[in-house]
């Protein structure tokens, strides 16, 4: 499982011109799945994501997590994160989870994260999404388990 976490001033996902998910300050997280992922990995990633300290404390140090600042979380499915780009000039998606399985994992991941922290918005698996955000910093981390 791969999450590309971005600290954001705001984030929004649109499908067919309609906003389907939007947050103010918080995390915009692109989420990709690999064939060997499982429910245990989803739980661990949810914990890490919600507790990862990327927001500044009163001293300007990244010591606060999204929950401590009462921020939003925008989860956006992105199968291309798991692409194999080691050779050639075209990505291979053989290292990505099959769409049917990845859809189930994304839905489960949403449930796990929302159970731990309800301020969650999402994109739509398989949709042609337009994602916009203001990356704050910029601060971006690649989380993988």
Could you explain how this protein is built, in words?
With 145 residues, this protein is an alpha/beta fold. It has one domain: D-tyrosyl-trna(Tyr) Deacylase, Chain: A, CATH 3.50.80.10. The protein is 21% helix and 39% strand. It has helices at residues 39-51, 99-116; strands at 2-15, 18-23, 26-32, 55-56, 62-64, 72-77, 120-122, 129-144. The strands form 2 sheets. Strands 1, 2, 3, 6, 7 and 8 form a 6-stranded mixed beta sheet that branches. Strands 4-5 form a two-stranded antiparallel ribbon. A hairpin with a 5-residue loop joins β4 (55-56) and β5 (62-64). It is globular, with a radius of gyration of 15 Å. Homodimer. InterPro entries: Daa-tRNA_deacyls_DTD, DTD-like_sf. One of its GO terms (molecular function) is D-aminoacyl-tRNA deacylase activity. It is found in: Cytoplasm. A motif (Gly-cisPro motif, important for rejection of L-amino acids) lies at residues 137-138.
User: What name does the CATH topology carry?
Assistant: D-tyrosyl-trna(Tyr) Deacylase, Chain: A
Structural class: alpha/beta
Number of helices: 2
Number of separate structural domains: 1
- Unreliable stretches (pLDDT < 50, length at least 5) are none
Which CATH C-level class is it?
Alpha Beta
Characterize the overall form: globular
CATH architecture: 3-Layer(bba) Sandwich
Number of strands: 8
Q: Helix and strand succession?
A: EEEHEEEHEE
Could you tell me how far the N terminus lies from the C terminus, measured between alpha carbons in angstroms? 6 Å
**What percentage of amino acids are in beta strands?**
35-45%
- Sketch the major β-sheet: 6 strands, mixed
Q: What is the name of the CATH superfamily? A: D-tyrosyl-tRNA(Tyr) deacylase
Instruction: Provide the residue-averaged pLDDT.
Output: 97
Assign a percent range to the helix content: 10-25%
CA radius of gyration: 15 Å
Family: Belongs to the DTD family.
Subunit structure: Homodimer.
Catalytic activity: glycyl-tRNA(Ala) + H2O = tRNA(Ala) + glycine + H(+); a D-aminoacyl-tRNA + H2O = a tRNA + a D-alpha-amino acid + H(+)
InterPro entries: Daa-tRNA_deacyls_DTD, DTD-like_sf
């Amino acid at each position: 499982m791969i999450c590309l976490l971005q600290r954001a001033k705001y984030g929004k996902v649109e499908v067919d011109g309609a906003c389907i998910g939007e947050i103010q300050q918080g995390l915009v997280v692109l989420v990709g799945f690999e064939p060997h992922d499982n429910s245990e990995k989803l739980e661990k990633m949810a914990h890490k994501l919600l507790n990862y300290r990327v927001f500044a404390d009163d001293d300007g140090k990244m010591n606060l997590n999204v929950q401590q600042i009462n921020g939003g979380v925008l989860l956006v499915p992105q199968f291309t994160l798991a692409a194999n780009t080691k050779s050639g000039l075209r990505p291979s998606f053989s290292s990505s989870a099959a769409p049917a399985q990845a859809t189930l994992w994304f839905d489960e991941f949403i449930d796990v994260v929302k159970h731990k922290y309800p301020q969650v918005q999402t994109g739509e698996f398989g949709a042609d999404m337009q994602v916009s955000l203001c990356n704050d910093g910029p601060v971006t981390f690649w989380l993988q388990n």
